[in-house]
Amino acid sequence: MNKFTFFFPGQGSQSVGMMSGFADSKIIRDTFVEASDILGIDFWKMASEENEQINETANTQPIMLVAGIATWRAWQATTSAMPTVLAGHSLGEYTALVAAQALSFADSLPLVQYRATAMQNAVPAGVGAMAALLGLDDAAVAAVCADAAENQVLQAVNFNSPGQVVIAGNKEAVERGMLLAKARGAKRAVGLPVSVPSHCALMQSAAKKLADYLVNVTISAPQIPVLHNADVLAHQDGNAIKDALVRQLYNPVRWVETVRAINAQGILLGAECGPGKVLAGLTKRIEANFSSTPLTSKESMQEFSARL
């Protein structure tokens, strides 16, 4: 059997109808009911019917975790084949830890809801922003951030694929960075529709609150290694995992390095375990020999299983 990995998506992959490929799956529906009972939110309705609430950070983070774990449970019911290593993009790191049995599903939902609220409260509305820069290498993006910051916060925060880097910080600094990036040859500089400037220094106060909250959360050794965004390492100790989660809030998501580290283990197959296909697309741009399948329906799950 081929070795393979699972990637868990984060905020931005949510959409109404995102679980339609599993509409008649009891495991999927039961997982959503379980989550709704824990947080008192009808997540299945939110995932299925037109609404604005799905894009509110305090709802988006829990519903993406629910969707990822529901898909994971459906996979477990499909086959006994288990991935060699797991990784998640930002919020997806929490989903990966639940899948790896390091963090309980019951604890994870209030945890990510708290994380989302702390992030939202750390920066007043309209103060922060994020933008994607396309067509510049990492060094050029770092130079843009240094030159456009002007005593404000402006940092590269998501290294998503070669030539696709997200910047975040104070709104005015991000706007200056977009203009400077274009002047220096960026193909595109696109503002992102987010209310929180994630993974930059403006998240330091949220990180402190998260650290305090995590003191009372049990995290144990993962049953499957999870590569963390902040350091591209797999930790076995619960306190080391908590530290990585706290650092993740104000440090960049090192996704290119993560995919390459997995690829270096001789793993050429992966699946995106959760809604959308953002990570599957990024993976192909990072490592051309790496095949990644979005598990967005029972059929895609069966097809991926057959390849192992």
Write a brief structural summary.
This protein has 308 residues and is an alpha/beta fold.
What can you tell me about this protein's structure?
The protein is of the alpha/beta class. It has helices spanning 26-39, 43-48, 57-78, 92-99, 105-122, 138-148, 171-183, 204-214, 238-250, 255-263, 278-286, 298-307; strands at 5-8, 85-88, 128-134, 154-161, 164-170, 188-191, 226-227, 269-272, 291-294. Strands 7-2-1-8-9 form a 5-stranded parallel beta sheet, with helices on both faces. It has a 4-stranded antiparallel beta sheet with strand order 4-5-3-6. It is globular. The termini are close together. The model has no long low-confidence stretch (mean pLDDT 97).
Instruction: Please state the CA-atom Rg, rounded to the nearest Å.
Output: 19 Å
What structural class results from the helix and strand content? alpha/beta
Q: How many distinct helices?
A: 12
- The gross shape turns out to be globular
Strand content: 5-15%
Major β-sheet strand ordering: 7-2-1-8-9
H/E element sequence: EHHHEHHEHEEHEHEHHEHEH
Major sheet attributes: 5 strands, parallel
Low-confidence stretches: none
Report the strand count: 9
**Alpha carbon gap, first and last residue:** 5 Å
Task: State the assembly state of the protein chains.
Answer: single chain
Average predicted local confidence, pLDDT? 97
Helix content: 40-55%
